[in-house]
Design a protein that fits this description.
10 strands, Aspartate Aminotransferase, domain 1, Aspartate Aminotransferase, domain 2
Length: 297
């Protein structure tokens, strides 16, 4: 049968879903949403490609990149991984695990700042037949030749589009220099220690039942964030930000705290949990003393 199916992580970041829908319209494929943990098993003879988030943007759950990639390949399908919430936070191993394609951003754990460039990974053996749907002068084999027809450059350069944002590139270059001599394995170790410590502080400071952790406790299943389900989460996060604890809110009821190990410390994690407890106590007085708390399930 024709490979006319695109599998999409059912909890994917919305923009990924929009792009998948656009690709399906242009190619005549159909979209099938599947829970990320089941995508490998769901790949079949009709599957052309699967789009999966390495870390769930809402819950912080880390998905099985090696296993899902191997299962998709066994079914004859390709996989595109979204690395926005893992690049710079944990080892990814694209080459080691034979990943086909990956995309990601540099403004999160790579610290490039707002508007910093995105990136594209294309496995080396796929690059000669990578046909970008958005060709531009900067991916042309002779970008200053001004030829009337398009001839793609060799290698990964053909993934470029137009003129890069030079100021954003300079800021990103400076951010990446911080990584000189830093092993991502060490960053991962600190990330896990920070998120463990934050959860311990939340359990100690926040009365039981006020928040519920939706981020997996198991290290093998956790990215570099902690997501807490909370009543009136939007208002709670607004107050946290006003007090200098800058997380974010995800509908309908999730407080999300990201931990960038290169510059976030244990004192930051402790203060965040303490301020959270203070905000919740002020909103709901009489909820129990500190130390009697917990993060639910």
């Amino acid at each position: 049968p024709a490979r006319d199916e695109i599998l999409v992580d059912a909890e994917t970041f919305p923009t990924d879903g929009y792009i998948a829908e656009s690709a399906a319209r242009m190619t005549g494929c159909r979209i099938r949403a599947v829970p990320a943990a089941e995508i490998g098993a769901a790949c079949g003879p009709r599957t052309a490609v699967a789009l999966v988030n390495h870390v769930d943007y809402r819950t912080g759950r880390l998905h099985d990149l090696p296993g899902t990639t191997a299962a998709a390949h066994a079914a004859g399908a390709l996989v595109v991984w979204d690395l926005c919430h893992s690049a710079g936070a944990l080892p990814v191993g694209l080459d080691a695990h034979g990943v086909d394609l990956a995309v990601g951003c540099t403004y999160k754990y790579l610290n490039g700042g707002p508007g910093s460039p995105a990136f594209l990974y294309v496995r080396r053996d796929l690059q000669p037949r990578f046909d970008s749907p958005l060709p531009g002068w900067n991916s042309h084999a002779d970008p200053f030749g001004m030829a009337p027809s398009y001839a793609p450059a060799d290698g990964a350069v053909r993934g470029r589009v137009g003129t890069p944002d030079i100021l954003s590139m300079l800021a990103l270059e400076a951010a990446l220099e911080v990584w000189d001599g830093v092993a991502v394995e060490d960053v991962r170790a600190k990330s896990l220690a920070l998120t463990d410590f934050f959860l311990e502080c939340v359990a100690a400071y926040v009365p039981r039942g006020r928040v519920e952790c939706v981020t997996p406790a198991a290290h093998a299943e956790r990215g570099s964030q902690v997501a807490l389900r909370c009543e009136d989460a939007e208002e709670v996060m607004r107050e946290l930000i006003a007090r200098g604890v800058v997380g974010d809110f995800r509908r309908p009821d999730v407080l999300r705290f990201g931990f960038t190990p290169l510059y976030v410390g244990y004192a930051d994690a402790e203060r965040a949990a303490r301020v959270l407890a203070d905000v919740l106590a002020e909103r709901h007085p009489g909820g129990g003393p500190p130390g009697a708390g917990g993060t639910g399930g």
